[in-house]
Amino acid sequence: MLNLLPSPPLPVSRDAGRAELVQIWDALDAGGRRMLLAQARAVAEVTGRVPQEPERPA
To answer: Can you give the pTM of this predicted structure?
Structure first.
């Protein structure tokens, strides 16, 4: 069967820009880290990099 889905991105740990990400992360306070994670999650959802969680019954 032919797989038409793109390959997943490489983990950040293998990326050349990891050192810069670590510097940015270390420079942020708790609020800044929460905001950065929220932005990363939003980008992942919009670009389809993360599967959507099924809705939980109420």
So the answer is: 0.55
